[in-house]
């Protein structure tokens, strides 16, 4: 789905004011309440907006260690591995990748010992051939999506014919 400037304005307003209701978002974006409500519904229905949960700072919540762990898995073992990863609460994300690793996991842990226990658990899996881990020392760029979406919209607008209204 291609996002237009109003979609991006709504997503920005939601990021900046996560508790705002439709009326407040209407005021912030200077768009009619019904339009805001319809756009939000469309963004939800198409899967662009997947939830309204709070952003959680893991370190502030007592999870002081983060790491990225790559997994090389046995041939054809992805289907068996997925439920194993979901069963480990320390696995925050897992993505199938290209390259030498098959899966990239983001792991959160209370301590280095907790991280080590997760790594040992991963290595006990018959689906996992090898793990490699990298401990996070700090964050340079926090998770974000709006700059990418804004760039895509700008590129799309630049390619649009001059006669087209926006």
TrEMBL record:
Tree of life domain: Bacteria
UniProt-listed InterPro entries: AsnC-type_HTH_dom, Dimeric_a/b-barrel, Tscrpt_reg_AsnC-like, Tscrpt_reg_AsnC/Lrp_C, WH-like_DNA-bd_sf, WH_DNA-bd_sf
Example of a GO cellular component annotation carried by this entry: cytosol
One GO-annotated biological process of the protein: response to amino acid
Entry keywords, A to Z: DNA-binding, Transcription, Transcription regulation
Pfam families: AsnC_trans_reg, HTH_AsnC-type
Keyword check for Heme: no
GO molecular function, one term: sequence-specific DNA binding
Record domain HTH asnC-type: where: 3-64
Protein name, UniProt field: AsnC family transcriptional regulator
Natural source organism: Nocardioides silvaticus
